[in-house]
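assembly run, all chains below
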Amino acid sequence: MKHAVTYELIKKDTKTRARRGRLHTPHGTIETPVFMPVGTAGTVKAMKPESLKEMGAQIILSNTYHLYLRPGHELVREAGGLHKFMNWDRAILTDSGGFQVFSLGDLRKITEEGVKFRSHIDGSSHMLTPEKSMEIQNALGSDIMMAFDECAPYPADRDYVKHSLERTTRWLKRCKDYHQNMENQSLFGIMQGGMYRDLREESAKAIVDLDLPGYAIGGLSVGEPKDLMLEVLDYSADFLPADKARYLMGVGTPDYLFEGVERGVDMFDCVLPTRIARNGTAMTSRGKVVIKNAKYQKDFSPLDPNCDCYTCRNYSRAYLRHLFKANEILSSMLLSEHNLYFLVKMMENIRKAIEEDRFTEYKNEFYEAYGPF
Amino acid sequence: MKHAVTYELIKKDTKTRARRGRLHTPHGTIETPVFMPVGTAGTVKAMKPESLKEMGAQIILSNTYHLYLRPGHELVREAGGLHKFMNWDRAILTDSGGFQVFSLGDLRKITEEGVKFRSHIDGSSHMLTPEKSMEIQNALGSDIMMAFDECAPYPADRDYVKHSLERTTRWLKRCKDYHQNMENQSLFGIMQGGMYRDLREESAKAIVDLDLPGYAIGGLSVGEPKDLMLEVLDYSADFLPADKARYLMGVGTPDYLFEGVERGVDMFDCVLPTRIARNGTAMTSRGKVVIKNAKYQKDFSPLDPNCDCYTCRNYSRAYLRHLFKANEILSSMLLSEHNLYFLVKMMENIRKAIEEDRFTEYKNEFYEAYGPF
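ok done. output:
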């Protein structure tokens, strides 16, 4: 079967497992490794799509759970799909809604059929199943749809994780069977298995058997220590086939992106850059800047002296601090633009470094300048 | 004395007092009549300066009271002035702070010296005088500085208004005497006189004697009925000299702009377009659109079918409604951009209509399409 989305491996780093590739999608070719800005409710918060394109964002992530509840996937379908609805003509990846409904805690109940939950908006009752998640994602028309899975919590005992990953595999088959639009949308599977090596291997084998165009490593960055996360990531990435895209979900701090790339991951997403921006924090080449701090009051230099983004070209820290203290919308706009630019350019530099076989050197330089994460 | 800002009359309408002119300032020439978007705290809320320039905004207004309290005028001076601080290289007009401190009610006390008040931010005590207002506006570096005046409330008895306007005249002289930067900044006087014809005339004579490059009509749109406002505006405009710019303060609904232009006013400002935008209301060629209304849920047409703004070119009412309901920042960004574009283009059309001697025809067409204001 021909997939709508395909991965092309271009070059491998000789010293690490880092790899330079391309993801071909119905909405353009994506150079990997790539960071995907998150547009939860059909908008990357405080950003015009044109600004995202200008900075070189290639693909964004949007959330099935949020769009299902508001404005509703049938409305988005009537609007001509999510690309048209939100004025974004590059690629879109949608998650399955699984992670959000599992996060609802007491408001949800899991069965073999799916997850029953109450809306965080109005308390209304809903049921999300593998079929329903596919129906919603088909209506949204994303280029990459994620399988409906259970992300086991941390810590979780072996029995729970094994049981959960087996159900996740059964749910993946139901997703694949129900998927209505193979020509234009591709389904990615999600590996689970918690912090257990053999379960990660078992999960990987089961999902790889289904011959999907890409696979995510799920269930990481859920509260476990960084060492453990890197240990699991280390072997998990190797369980996945080299000719398919690999996606590490929900990861967006610079160090995790480097560590992921080093282990052969191609795709990342996280709300972090835009969320901390709205809280007044910027990522810069010399580490984090908390803009409300008094020391920036009369600092007329740019946020990051090494940055060419719109914000750094035109505004001072003193002005950004003023906007933040005055609760001005422009504060969120300018800091979001800077933080996204920072990660997008960092990934561009990573790709270039891999091409030139100096990924480790670039990583070391970056870490040295950035300081503690 | 050569003024930094000068008014040039280009053409008069033959059927009304509407006039087409130019305001020459150190930051460019402004075609009049003109609407000035308001950037209270050194930012036109939810707008990048580039978007304002793209739509044709020629001059913005910023508030002395707000910038004095936060971030402080000395900080803005150190930053190189307000133009540089906020990344706006076109003209800026600053108000005097008078209107804001008078609006503080119990928090302020008026004497001949000036106004003692408490900050709305932290309750700290301050004194604003004609000299202090000039000092602040000199530090901000605006092209046009407004005189420190008292805007009498409505209703107010004749004695109060007379006493107040005479003090306003004395304050204006103090402003002129204290003004430190005549070569680069021009001081505009403000006419007061409440709803009393003879007091308006008295005020006008006194301020015109000072030979300033422009005059504002103050003390209107403060709660009086529309009929009365138009009656006072009618004779007030005529008391001002034809070779100087005329500015009607705080007015921004389409009908008041038309009525003002018809009576020979050149400049207008108001927070209305951006404020109602943040509350989800758009001004369109067919009247107001309250975007949260259920009838727009599946309305995939643009906000205004006759508008070429960024928002109308790229987004549907259904999407804008979704953003507003989801409390997304992009909602304020897109509606603010539309509303400002709407007024800026309306003023462009008014200028063209005056040039072609069909102002009244354009006004009638506009009113017919817009419906009730």
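The CA atoms of residues 178 and 280 of chain B lie 43 Å apart.

Chain B has a mean pLDDT of 97.

not gonna interpret more than that til we talk
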